[in-house]
Write a sequence for this structure.
């Protein structure tokens, strides 16, 4: 059974597969491999990717983007970045809910829509059902964020056979192509997240030595800095507060992104925005120097994690043989310069930084399906995992940068005669106090009603190859294993996921209709354009009544294309 | 549940930080360490007659270790040598409401008291001889 | 590339959890895989890390061959290679891998290796309470005051004071680094001592008093090293900024 590799990105997503010994990304109808991670709920149904991107400005309240920033998070976690998000957020059971029109979705459900789009794309090209996938996540994703990604896969009808880290996935693709041996650093600055991983490559083994990062730092933040300048300038010049206009805010954000991208190749670029209420057109010139002065602090924030990763690996910058750049944001010249200064060598970028993660996911898929046997990835857990002890202190069980799979055992007993349970709170993070770390989950350990101190329950905390925690318990006196019901602090319950899988099937038929309509409209448009062109070039060669018939057909087609959605 | 307020208070405003001259008359010095975590504690008493008139400490370690030694010096002041002998780590645990993972900090404080008292007695013996 | 495991019947030194294949009940004696049905077998949970990596209980380890052995065993046990197998086989592979990872990383680091040996041999070397090294403690406490002074000077943004304290701390750091190196040299000597006795008398009870002497000395040195490293860690973190590793 084929396993595909998926890069589920903040800004763009891709799907790839192994074509023999070579990983390949799968392009869509337009020839583009990248699918913008944007979902629009239109009157005509759900649309995903490039066509959905057009709705960002037209219909901002019903168009969801950068949903990855919400995965595995509560509302309080994202409070500081709500300004640009036009949709209404709420929280239920520790999970963010996004209100779009009449319906409310969890981030895994939105992500599942993107995954489905990718799945269908692969099925169309490979002519087979796709049901198994390797999905990548930022290396610094915590347990809740990983679990949310797995949930998204399930809702999309995919068996997520493995979650792997984006920088390590990139190293697989890079190592496969370059046949590198030695120590490499992968610097991955994506749309919303930053990761640094240090790996040792030897004889087909890819051993991660350390990893670090920031799941709240990426290209989006660079866009926001430019957007702030524009917003302030518009207020000063036109007395307009664009914050009040959802559409204009999206236009500013997208134009800031375009300007940033242009400044990677050009020394100057002009941002152009149509102001609302027929105020006119706003223009502002930006120079690369200006952009760099505005964003130098953001780039600096990536260097601290790099130094920490080096330290955790016990290495100096000079010990790194090669530096590999991943993620679209590494196209910025300032990023390249600072990375080069830190490591003292020019970074590599032979592989397309947008595609290398998806390619690596496909390589890992090849390993899991047994087709690739000479490569093996040994990854680490990015964050320390432990439990709360009395007094609000975290007691660490598995330290950060421990190779996974890894397990730790802890014995629990009772303090009071007849006590029937012990509450256990699992945490992730590097700080001493519980309140400064991330709450992962809670569960209640059942105890046999015996005198205090007599029960002995051994709990095994196992971090699997996905970096996801599994908890099992065994009564040492009876050797019976105990089933544990772990309640995630920031995750969907099993029942909720089940429900969402059901919903997803229910709406699938509807979505397919919507999708066919969009495709038919695109085809219709292409046909009209081609016919018009032929008529101009060779219209004089055919009879007048034939031209009239063609014109009539064209008009009918155009009317059908622009018409409302057929009912039934 | 957070760190108990008493721990935080003793940690942010530790009492009796400092030291006496080691060879000063009536001074007993206890120097102990926890090899598992690298904490180091120095606790000194100053005795006049049978009574501890002053106590000082220096601790390199976590908040609980500092709070434990701070509390220990507070308790020592005004006590007789014999009374001081009876201070137990469990008293410190109770007073500061220390969590189980921090109990070794109170053990360290008790060891430091014992060591300071022993040092004082040893010195007193040689002085009277 | 040949990645070295003949899955059908590889003889190893590894103690397995059971003497019978969990699947086909045929006898297994130290194979990773059952000779009859080729199913992966669980490693014994009581196995010590030296045995796991096929090493004698010695402290001098050739890290290159340790790594080669680790990679070899990883190729035998890693869950990636059991994706299409049954749930039981996946669980066994997960457990074996977790054990192997802990074993390798414990032995790879010389300090953790020595601590682990002390734990293994604890039967006779338990409860070694050494007299605390008073001069080292005095030094640590003094250094802590210097650190405090540096921190308050730099938070008060007193550039002159900060620079002065920094110079002193840098000198202290150099001094501590030297002491740590001296300790490491001494530790290496103890490693050799242990290895000599252990090679001569590998049976646990043989030459026990001599062994315990070395272990005791090692215990003391490792404790002192912990004190030193913990203040050195604080010093480096204070000088370089960034986040200090959590203290317990």
């Amino acid at each position: 059974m084929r396993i595909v590799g998926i890069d589920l990105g903040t800004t763009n997503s891709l799907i790839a597969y192994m074509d023999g010994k070579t990983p390949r990304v799968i392009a869509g109808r337009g020839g583009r491999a990248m699918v913008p991670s944007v979902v629009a709920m239109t009157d005509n149904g759900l649309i995903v990717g490039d066509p959905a991107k057009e709705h960002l400005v037209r219909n901002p309240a019903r168009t969801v983007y950068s949903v990855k920033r919400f995965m595995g998070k509560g509302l309080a976690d994202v409070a500081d970045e709500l300004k640009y998000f036009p949709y209404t957020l709420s929280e239920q059971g520790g999970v963010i809910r996004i209100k779009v029109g009449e319906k409310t979705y969890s981030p895994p459900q939105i992500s599942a829509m993107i995954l489905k789009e990718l799945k269908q794309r692969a099925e169309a090209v490979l002519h087979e059902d796709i049901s198994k996938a390797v999905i990548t996540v930022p290396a610094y994703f915590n347990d809740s964020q990983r679990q949310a990604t797995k949930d998204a896969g399930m809702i999309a009808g995919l068996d997520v056979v493995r979650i792997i880290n984006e920088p390590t996935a990139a190293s697989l693709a890079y190592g496969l192509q370059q046949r590198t041996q030695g120590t490499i650093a992968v610097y991955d600055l994506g749309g919303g997240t930053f990761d640094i991983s240090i790996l040792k490559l030897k004889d087909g083994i890819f051993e991660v030595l350390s990893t670090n990062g920031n799941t709240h730092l990426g290209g989006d933040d660079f866009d926001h800095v430019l957007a702030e300048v524009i917003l302030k300038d518009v207020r000063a010049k036109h007395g307009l507060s664009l914050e009040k206009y959802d559409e204009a805010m999206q236009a500013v954000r997208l134009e800031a992104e375009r300007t940033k991208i242009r400044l990677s190749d050009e020394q100057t670029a002009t941002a152009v925005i149509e102001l609302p209420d027929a105020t006119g057109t706003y223009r502002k010139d930006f120079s690369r120097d200006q952009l760099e002065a505005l964003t130098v602090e953001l780039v600096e924030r990536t260097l601290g994690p790099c130094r920490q990763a080096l330290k955790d690996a016990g290495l100096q910058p000079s010990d790194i043989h090669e530096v590999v750049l991943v993620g679209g944001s590494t196209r910025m010249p300032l990023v390249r310069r600072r990375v080069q200064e830190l490591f003292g060598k020019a970074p590599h970028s032979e592989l397309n930084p947008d595609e290398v993660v998806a390619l690596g996911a496909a390589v890992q898929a090849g390993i899991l399906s047994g087709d690739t046997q000479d490569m093996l990835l040994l990854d680490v857990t990015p964050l320390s995992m432990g439990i709360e002890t009395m007094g609000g202190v975290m007691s660490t069980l598995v330290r950060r940068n421990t190779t996974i799979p890894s397990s730790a055992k802890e014995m629990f007993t009772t303090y009071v005669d007849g006590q029937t349970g012990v509450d256990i709170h699992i945490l992730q993070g590097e700080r001493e106090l519980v309140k400064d770390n991330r709450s992962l989950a809670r569960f209640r350990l059942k105890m046999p009603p015996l005198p205090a101190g007599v029960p002995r329950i051994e709990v095994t905390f196992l971090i699997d190859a996905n970096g996801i925690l599994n908890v099992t318990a065994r009564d040492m006196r009876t050797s019976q294993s105990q089933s544990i019901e772990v309640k995630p602090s920031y995750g969907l319950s099993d029942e909720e996921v089940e429900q969402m899988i059901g919903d997803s099937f229910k709406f699938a038929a509807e979505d397919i209709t919507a999708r066919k309509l969009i495709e038919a409209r695109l085809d219709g448009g292409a046909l009209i354009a081609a016919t018009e062109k032929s008529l101009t070039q060779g219209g004089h060669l055919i009879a007048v009544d034939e031209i009239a018939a063609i014109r009539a057909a064209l008009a009918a087609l155009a009317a059908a294309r622009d018409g409302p959605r057929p009912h039934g | 549940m957070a760190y108990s307020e008493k721990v935080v208070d003793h940690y942010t405003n530790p009492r009796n930080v400092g030291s006496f001259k080691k060879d000063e008359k009536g001074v007993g010095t206890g120097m102990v360490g926890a090899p598992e975590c690298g904490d180091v504690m120095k606790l000194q008493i100053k005795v006049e007659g049978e009574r501890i008139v002053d106590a000082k400490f220096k601790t390199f370690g976590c908040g609980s270790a500092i709070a434990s030694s701070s509390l220990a010096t507070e308790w020592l002041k005004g006590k007789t040598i014999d009374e001081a002998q009876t201070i137990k780590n469990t008293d410190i645990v109770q007073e500061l409401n220390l969590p189980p993972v921090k109990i070794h900090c109170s053990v360290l404080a008790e060891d430091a008291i014992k060591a300071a008292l022993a040092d004082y007695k040893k010195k007193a013996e040689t002085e009277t001889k | 590339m040949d990645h070295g495991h003949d899955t059908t019947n590889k003889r190893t030194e590894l103690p397995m959890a059971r003497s019978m294949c969990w699947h086909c009940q045929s006898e297994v004696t130290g194979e990773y895989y059952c000779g009859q049905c080729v199913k992966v077998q669980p490693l014994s949970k009581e196995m010590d890390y030296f045995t796991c990596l096929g090493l004698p209980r010695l402290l001098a380890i050739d890290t290159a061959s340790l790594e080669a052995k680790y990679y070899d065993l990883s190729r035998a046990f890693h869950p990636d290679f059991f994706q299409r197998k049954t749930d039981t086989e996946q669980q066994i592979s997960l457990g074996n891998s977790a054990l192997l990872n802990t074993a390798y990383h414990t032995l790879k680091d010389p300090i953790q290796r020595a601590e682990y040996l002390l734990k293994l041999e604890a039967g006779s070397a338990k409860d070694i309470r050494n007299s605390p090294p008073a001069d080292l403690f005095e030094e640590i406490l003094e250094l802590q005051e210097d650190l405090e002074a540096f921190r308050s000077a730099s938070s008060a943004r007193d550039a002159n004071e900060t620079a002065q304290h920094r110079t002193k701390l840098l000198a202290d750091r150099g001094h501590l680094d030297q002491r740590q190196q001296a300790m490491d040299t001494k530790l290496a000597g103890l490693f050799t001592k242990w290895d000599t006795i252990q090679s001569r008398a590998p049976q646990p009870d043989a030459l026990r008093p001599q062994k315990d002497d070395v272990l005791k000395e090692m215990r003391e040195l490792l404790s002192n090293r912990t004190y030193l490293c913990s203040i050195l860690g604080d010093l480096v973190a204070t000088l370089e900024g960034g986040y200090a590793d959590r203290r317990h």
The interface with chain A takes residues 1-4, 62, 97-102 of chain B (CB under 8 Å). The radius of gyration of chain B is 14 Å.
